[in-house]
Write a structure and sequence with these properties.
The complex is a heterodimer. Chain A contains 17 helices and 18 strands. Chain A is α/β, with parallel strands linked by helices. Chain A: One of its GO terms (molecular function) is DNA topoisomerase type II (double strand cut, ATP-hydrolyzing) activity.
């Protein structure tokens, strides 16, 4: 009797296990999955040997504005030239004004050949002697002067530092941040070449080593938290890796799970997250990895419109910083999951799915109109399914099958089936 | 129709039988019937008599609305006097002939203070005094001892005599008893825009007075060209729904007065409904600026007395609403039967053509053809079977008809609405708009809106004034379509209006042959009717658009004054920043000389290092530029806006003598009166 019960319990245990981790039995041995990944990596490497297109390669009907990385001395010269022209204008009794490239939505253009957003050449005049622009013009001159000082001393400061140099004038940080982007556009250089950085946000862990300001960093030995992505990319060099792919994760929680489970040791990979909307540093770092290591990039985002939006920022750039999209975007990111079709494919229970709000549905419908979604028929299909089913799910929804389901079953299975778009 | 009449009679007969004095054993099976008066006495909340306070309010409004209707029906500019007189208990007792009795057994009463309660109270008072003394010692402000609220016994009712006098049509001598003493008999039952909501009016006040005080209603009335005044004192036999006349006599009319004066004594509550009643009067004055109101509250304690005059601001009255016929899509089965019963037309064709709007002769013929072979143009209308009537009803619901026109409606008019707002609120700005007539379920409706900014006795934020068929709606504001629209669907920022800081008055008046009220009290219009919601939204928006240009002008004028200061404020910051760049570059240039710069820039740097150009020179030049720009812009502004306008004050001049021979030329925004 006791024996029987024991057996039954054992039975029920195994039942439990398969119920908790559905599809586990479908998994092939890791070696097989690794082989498919190897194939992907080789394919990517051979494909990306061809030279990447630039704006000048295309003969676009409208001229577009792009910025470049400039050395400090030329930034200095540019600022000086600008200041001198302003001074001359003042001395001749005409006041002064800036010609600021417009970063409004109407001045953006998606270029399918480049697969990113670029800025068109419309600009607006910002005169000092006008009630509506006097404050902004003053802030612009002040930022110019501050950046000039930075370039003279060759130091880096954060956007927050910049704001605190004259709180009274800037009033709040959004104003100085916006003007900083304007100044980048006016001078025609990237924000990094202005020596202004944002606070660290992104983290990286996995099979990569690189040097940060001369110190060698091995990201397999960074503990669970990983290495914070350095805010200025010019400090980073000597990248090397034996990874097969880069895994881009939207959420901190999923990143932690994968890092703790040492997912990168089972399947050699580099795991990156920017904890939500990506900052400039993370985007620059991802691009550098992609360009130097020539690895495929797979993205793991929530199954909601914002997940796709984040994906698009990595891939095609944000509208606010489209003037620098050449340096900030990473081409050819594959959407691995969680995709709307996965909800049914992996039988995610109803209680873990969330109904989309009206705002969500509207965002989804707007996204369907965006060029960067339309260029990928698979994405259009998935997004239409999401808008139709009116359901969304976060990466954490997979935790219903156990906290480790993501790293133990879902991701391996996805990789095995080459289920990316 | 015959059956209908017999059912009208039956309650009276039934009640006659049932009204034996000795109480009998309750019989479960006896079928009881209620007279309409009894029904309303039991369900007085549906007519707005929920509690004594609300009853006082509803009584006032019913009397005022009757008075306005009456005056408008004879095209007389209304003059309405409302007096509420507080009657204390002993006075009330003497009125009903009851002698005041002293209490003998104190413990019998609800407000009797038991020994325990007294101990508690004394302890509390002692504690209070202690704190007070402490506070006084500490030099804190001493709070007045709140007079201990005595427990209010149930019997502690307050009574009020409500008097309302108007200069309207008056009532025919012989009709008066029936007009007051019979519920659901009214003159306002046709299809037209009316103020009354149920046709109960003064009758409900009479039922309430009967229930609460038992005192009769007193009516004086005189009609034009009538040599006498009718005086009538009556109450109502609730069970039989007939008037019970005390006095009904003719008296001399000395002042050549015409109109009616109604006096009723009811239980009420002035303290809790004071503000509601005053709001009602004020809002009524807004929507009826051509009427003169005199409101008085009289009591023994003179500091509570109120006396407000709402003066007439215009003598242009909206036209009297016309009675109209039903629209085919607005009738139900019962209504068709009633129309058939009442019609004088013989055959179906004439019936369709004349008893409904928007059915012409050819249209009627087509409809009859569509009804089926049983119907013909010559079919006698009275011989239609119930099935045939159902068929007509079905067709009415499915067929397409033109929308009814809004000609039968009488909106307040933009002119009056604007004057009403100005006269009662004294706003800084006001804009009004009248939307064109629209249709909901076969009933035409017109939405008028006004938006005001600033003014006296207006609180910050949105102040919403709702009117339905030209009477104010005061209760259940939250769910109303106007409130919802103004709060949620108007983006006030677009029109440079600050929704929380500015004093915004939103006035929306909806008139219709049938207002789609929600709720039993008929106090609000639901938010679910998209036709009305969108009309309200566009009307308010139109007002805002008008205001926006005025507000922008005002902002410009203010900017004009502050421009120079704002521009000059940043000169130091801007030139300082530019100078810093130049100075540091010049030092660098002097030291290393390895910068590839243009000659003119080098020259400039040279001047900076030799202090030919300093921060001060830059500031000075920029200040000159600002000065010049400011001057140019001031000139431009002056040429645009013309000569500086002196603040003007609105005045209103009343006509010197009431002259009768004139003609009015109406436009939505003004009236031009030509004296002949």
């Amino acid at each position: 009797m006791a024996d029987k019960r024991k057996r039954r319990r054992a039975d029920s245990d195994s039942d439990d296990d398969s119920a908790r981790l559905p599809f586990k039995n479908r998994l092939k041995p890791d070696s097989a999955i690794l082989a498919t990944l190897q194939a992907l990596t080789t394919a990517t490497k051979s494909a990306s040997t061809s030279k990447t297109l630039t704006l000048s390669d295309l003969s676009l009907s409208s001229t577009c504005r792009e910025v470049t990385d400039l050395p400090l001395s030329s930034v200095q010269t540019k600022i000086l030239t600008l200041a001198a022209s302003l001074a001359r204008s003042i001395l001749s009794g005409n006041g002064f004004s800036f010609s600021v490239p417009s970063r409004a939505a109407t001045n953006q253009l998606y270029v399918p050949e480049l697969d990113r957003i670029v800025l068109k050449d419309k600009s607006s005049i910002r005169p000092y002697a006008s009630v509506s622009t006097v404050r902004k013009t003053t802030i612009t001159t002040r930022i110019l002067s501050l950046i000039h000082q930075l370039s003279l001393k060759n130091i880096h400061v954060t956007k927050r530092d910049l704001f605190y140099t004259d709180v009274k004038l800037f009033q709040d940080q959004t104003q100085s941040d916006a003007v900083l982007d304007d100044v980048s556009c006016i001078l025609g250089c990237t924000r990094s070449s202005l020596n202004v950085v944002a606070a660290e946000k992104g983290v990286v862990v996995g099979r990569i080593t690189f040097s940060d300001n001369g110190d060698m960093i091995d990201c397999t030995k960074m503990g669970i938290g990983g290495k914070a992505i350095p805010p200025n990319i010019d400090r980073v060099g000597d990248m090397s890796s034996d990874a097969l792919f880069i895994l881009l994760v939207e959420k901190d929680a999923a990143y932690m799970r994968l890092a703790e489970d040492r997912f990168y040791n089972r399947f050699p990979c580099i795991i990156v997250t920017a904890k939500g909307q990506p900052d400039v540093a993370t985007r620059l770092f991802l691009r550098k990895m992609k360009m130097e290591l020539k690895l495929p990039v797979l993205a793991l985002v929530d199954s909601d419109p914002y997940g796709l939006k984040i994906l698009s920022v990595y891939g095609c750039g944000s509208k606010n910083m489209s003037y620098d999209s050449a340096n900030l975007t990473t081409p050819d990111i594959k959407w691995l999951g969680i995709r709307p079709s996965d909800l049914d494919k992996y039988k995610i229970p109803e209680q873990c799915r969330l109904p989309m709000t009206e705002q969500d549905i509207k965002t989804g419908k707007d996204l369907l109109e965006e060029d960067f979604v339309k260029k990928n028929p698979g994405w259009v299909e998935e997004l239409s399914l999401m808008v139709k089913s009116k359901q969304k799910a976060e990466i954490q929804a997979l935790s219903t099958f156990g906290f480790q389901y993501l790293s133990e079953v879902y991701l391996p299975l996805k990789l095995q089936q080459q289920d990316w778009l | 129709m015959d059956t209908g009449e017999s059912s009208d009679e039956s309650p009276i007969q039934a009640n006659k039988k049932g009204k034996s004095k000795t109480p009998r054993k309750p019989k479960a099976s006896t079928l009881k019937q209620k007279s309409p008066a009894e029904f309303f006495a039991e369900n007085k909340n549906i007519a707005g008599f929920d509690n004594p306070g609300k009853s006082l309010y509803t009584t006032v409004r019913e009397l005022v609305e009757n008075a306005l209707d009456s005056a408008e029906s004879v095209a007389e500019l209304p003059f309405v006097e409302v007096t509420i007189e507080e009657i204390n208990k002993s006075k009330f007792n003497s009125m009903i002939g009851l002698i005041d009795r002293e209490r003998i057994d104190e413990a019998l009463y609800g407000d009797f203070e038991t020994v325990k309660a007294r101990e508690k109270r004394l302890a509390k008072e002692a504690r209070f005094q202690e704190i007070q003394a402490k506070n006084a010692a500490l030099g804190k402000k001493v709070k007045e001892q709140t007079s201990a609220k005595g427990m209010k016994g149930r019997g502690e009712a307050s009574f009020y005599r409500v008097t309302c006098k108007d200069n309207g049509r008056g009532m025919p001598h012989d009709d008066i008893p029936n007009m007051f003493g019979r519920v659901l008999s009214g003159t306002k039952y046709g299809l037209k825009q009316t103020r009354g909501k149920f046709g109960l009016g003064a009758k409900m006040a009479l039922i309430w007075s009967k229930m609460s005080t038992g005192l009769p209603i007193e009516i004086s009335s005189s009609m034009k060209n009538q040599s006498y005044t009718t005086f009538c004192r009556l109450d109502i036999d609730i069970h039989r729904n007939i008037p019970h006349i005390h006095v009904h006599e003719k008296r001399d009319d000395k002042e050549q007065w015409h109109g009616a004066e109604i006096q009723v004594v009811i239980e009420g509550n002035w303290t809790t409904y004071r503000s509601k009643i005053l709001h009602y009067m004020r809002q009524m004055a807004v929507i009826t600026p051509y009427a003169q109101f005199m409101f008085r509250f009289v009591s023994d304690t003179s500091d509570k007395n109120v006396s407000i005059r709402f003066t007439r601001r215009t003598d242009v009255m909206p036209a009297v609403p016309l009675e109209t016929k039903y629209h085919p899509s607005a009738v139900d089965l019962l209504l068709i039967k009633r129309l058939i019963g009442e019609t004088t037309k013989q055959n179906l064709l004439q019936f369709l053509q004349h008893e409904f709007v928007n059915i012409g002769k050819s249209h009627a013929e087509r409809l009859i053809g569509e009804m089926g072979p049983d119907f013909g143009p010559k079919t006698p209308v009275k011989s239609l079977t119930p099935q045939q009537i159902v068929r007509i009803h079905q067709l009415f619901r499915q067929a397409k008809f033109d929308d009814p026109s809004g000609d039968c409606l009488s909106p307040a008019g933009e002119y009056n609405l604007r004057l009403g707002i100005i006269k009662e609120l004294h706003p800084d700005m006001v804009a009004t708009y009248t939307a064109s007539a629209q249709v909901f379920e076969g009933h035409p409706f017109i939405v008028e809106a006004g938006v005001s900014l600033g003014g006296k006795d207006v609180k910050q934020g949105l102040n919403i004034f709702r009117f339905a068929n030209r009477i104010p709606l005061l209760f259940e504001q939250g769910a109303d379509v106007v409130t919802r629209t103004a709060m949620k669907r108007i983006n006030w920022n677009t029109y440079k209006i600050n929704q929380t800081q500015d004093k915004i008055g939103v006035f929306v008046s909806i008139v219709s042959t049938k207002i789609p009220f929600k709720g039993t009290g008929k106090e609000y219009i639901g938010d679910d009717i998209s036709e009305i919601a969108s009309a309200v939204k566009t009307s308010i928006k139109q007002c805002c658009i008008q205001l926006k240009s005025k507000i922008v002008k005002k902002i410009q004028a203010r900017e004009q004054q502050e421009r120079k200061r704002n521009l000059a404020k940043y000169i130091g910051d801007a030139t300082g920043a530019i100078y810093d760049i130049l100075k540091e570059s010049s030092q660098l240039h002097a030291k290393k000389k390895r910068m590839e710069i243009k000659d003119e820039d080098a020259e400039l740097l040279q001047k900076v290092s030799s202090r030919l150009i300093t921060k001060e020179t830059l500031s000075e030049k920029l200040a000159q530029h600002v000065e010049q720009v400011d001057y140019e812009m001031a000139m431009e502004y002056a040429t645009q806006s013309g000569v500086r306008e002196e603040p003007r004050e609105n005045i209103y001049i009343q006509a010197l003598e009431p002259q009768k021979n004139f003609m009015d030329l109406h436009s939505p925004v003004f009236v031009f009166r030509l004296f002949l």
